[in-house]
């Protein structure tokens, strides 16, 4: 009985993984999301036009449904959901790429927020006394800094110091860990869809029934979906950390994986605050992850040099 289960589970995992996270599925999802993004942009512009001509009335305090510039916010939101799918797609392939995708997503959230900030600008001489103008300034500076930090993270991410022989031995040890990552990634895809649909439905309800306490308001629109999904990511990261102990007890690997979880938690906390504190937490999260990866690579380089000396 156990032998049958052991034979059936790998096939089930591979079939599920291929249906949800194969290269073909990724390409199809990309095309679908692009068409949805284009359609949502047109619908958003249409709604803004209907409100402008008083054909429909929506009680909305921001300019998200009044200023045409803000219409860019909607297609960008769907593109961000696809970026989350890519994050899940890269989870079984590379831990550092998976973390890099988290950083790219939070940077894109700030870029998206800039479109909303642009629609709320006052353009007065009291720039630094107006909350919305200040938020635009914070986001503008933060987007440039985050872009550079992610570039530095990418440089560190692609560095490989282990020898080919060492990597072959290492890969043979982590085959079960890779399967565990595939199971988690496959489970995250339906969770992604459920949270996205639920968040979108609640947001729509918040527009037409603003007095409902359980709906999402425009006040925290930037946090829709991502606040809940990063909660799930933290749980997934902790599970991955525990599974990683089955194939390695190397100090620098444990510190790296633990550090990445702390970085994810800091990003999650940033959703619960606004203004300059939000920006500080996001920058701190990426700086911390970058520092952890930099030191980890120093360890890897030293170990590679030691292995090379032994081989000689």
Notes on the structure:
By secondary structure, the protein is an all-alpha fold. It has one domain (92-311). Helices cover 77% and strands 0% of the residues. The protein has ten helices and no strands. The protein has helices spanning 2-21, 23-52, 73-90, 95-119, 131-157, 164-173, 175-208, 226-244, 251-270, 275-311. Helix 3 (73-90) runs antiparallel to helix 7. Mean pLDDT is 82; it is low at 213-219.
What is the share of helical residues?
over 70%
The CA-CA distance between the termini, in Å, is 49 Å
Number of helices: 10
Overall shape: it is globular
Elements, N to C (H/E): HHHHHHHHHH
Secondary structure tally: strands: 0
Can you describe this structure in just a few lines?
This protein is 77% helix and 0% strand.
Secondary structure: elements and pairs:
Blueprint: H1 2-21, H2 23-52, H3 73-90, H4 95-119, H5 131-157, H6 164-173, H7 175-208, H8 226-244, H9 251-270, H10 275-311
Helix pairs in contact: 1-2, 1-7, 2-3, 3-4, 3-7, 4-5, 4-9, 4-10, 5-10, 7-8, 8-9, 9-10
Throw out a few tags for this protein.
single chain, 312 residues, mainly alpha, 10 helices, globular
């Amino acid at each position: 009985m156990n032998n049958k289960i052991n034979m059936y589970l790998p096939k089930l995992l591979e079939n599920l993984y291929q249906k949800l996270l194969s290269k073909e599925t990724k390409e199809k999802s990309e095309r679908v999301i692009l068409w949805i993004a284009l359609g949502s942009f047109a619908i958003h512009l249409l709604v803004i036009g209907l409100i402008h001509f008083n054909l429909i009335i929506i009680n909305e305090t921001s300019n998200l449904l009044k200023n045409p510039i803000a219409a860019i916010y909607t297609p960008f939101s769907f593109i961000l959901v696809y970026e989350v799918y890519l994050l899940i797609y890269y989870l079984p392939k590379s831990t550092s790429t998976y973390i890099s995708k988290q950083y790219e997503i939070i940077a894109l959230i700030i870029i998206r927020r800039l479109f909303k900030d642009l629609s709320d600008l006052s353009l007065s001489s009291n720039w630094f006394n107006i909350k919305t103008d200040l938020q635009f300034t914070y986001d503008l500076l933060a987007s440039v800094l985050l872009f550079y930090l992610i570039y530095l993270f990418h440089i560190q991410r692609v560095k490989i110091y282990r020898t080919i022989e060492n990597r072959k031995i290492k890969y043979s040890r982590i085959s079960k860990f890779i399967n565990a990552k595939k199971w988690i990634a496959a489970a995250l895809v339906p969770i992604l869809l459920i949270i996205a649909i639920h968040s979108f439905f609640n947001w729509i309800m918040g527009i037409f029934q603003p007095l409902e306490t359980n709906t999402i308001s425009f006040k925290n629109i930037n946090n829709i979906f991502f606040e809940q999904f990063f909660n799930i990511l933290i749980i997934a990261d902790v599970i991955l950390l525990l599974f990683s102990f089955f194939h390695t007890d190397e100090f620098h690997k444990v510190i790296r994986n633990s550090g990445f979880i702390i970085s994810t938690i800091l990003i999650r906390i940033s959703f619960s605050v606004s203004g300059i504190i939000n920006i500080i937490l996001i920058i701190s999260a990426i700086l911390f992850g970058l520092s952890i990866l930099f030191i980890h690579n120093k360890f890897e380089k030293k170990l590679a040099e030691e292995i090379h000396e032994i081989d000689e």
